[in-house]
Specification:
Elements (H helix, E strand, L loop, with lengths): L1 H4 L2 H47 L27
Length: 81
């Protein structure tokens, strides 16, 4: 009975699945990764071009407050004197 289930169609299907899974699958994956990389590169270049055209001066860094919190007691302030 088991021999009746082993038809040539089974082997053709296994071979076809093996070819698709092992040979074509990595090619498709690599192609999708390449498309994503080129798309992300294009977007990054666009952002860089927009920032270059904006010509905005960098914002000034604010100085830290003279008073600092005490690490041992986070709710209390130290004297600034």
């Amino acid at each position: 009975m088991v021999a009746a289930l082993l038809t040539p169609d089974l082997f053709v299907g296994l071979g076809f699945g093996l070819v698709l899974g092992l040979l074509i699958g990595p090619v498709v994956r690599s192609w999708l990764i390449w498309r994503e990389y080129t798309s992300a590169s294009r977007e990054a270049n666009l952002v860089a071009d927009v920032l270059d055209r904006m010509d905005v001066a960098p914002s000034p860094r604010s100085e830290p407050d003279e008073r600092a919190t005490d690490a041992a007691h986070p709710g209390t302030w130290q004297n600034a004197s």
